[in-house]
Design brief:
The chain has about 80 residues and is α+β, with helices and mostly antiparallel strands. About 15% of the residues lie in helices and about 25% in strands. Strands 3-2-1-4 form a four-stranded mixed β-sheet. It is globular and about 35 Å long.
Length: about 80
Amino acid sequence: LDALRHNKWLHLACHGMPNRKQPFESSFAMRDRPLMIKDIIRSHWHNPEFAFLSAFHTTAVDETSSGESIHLAAAMQFSGFRN
């Protein structure tokens, strides 16, 4: 996560792992450990510009939710990535 904070562009080619019961526990499958939504939102990116997500299930949500949900793609935008 530290290395990611110093880059303006991010390309993730991995699997997304949605957690419908605990949405902030949803994550990207990384080599050493999952990169969770809560970690992405809490991180302090330095002028993030572009996130390219080559991952399955980045916008998977719970169909029974009340219309508002958090998913991996939205977490990147909440973290400041414009695209």
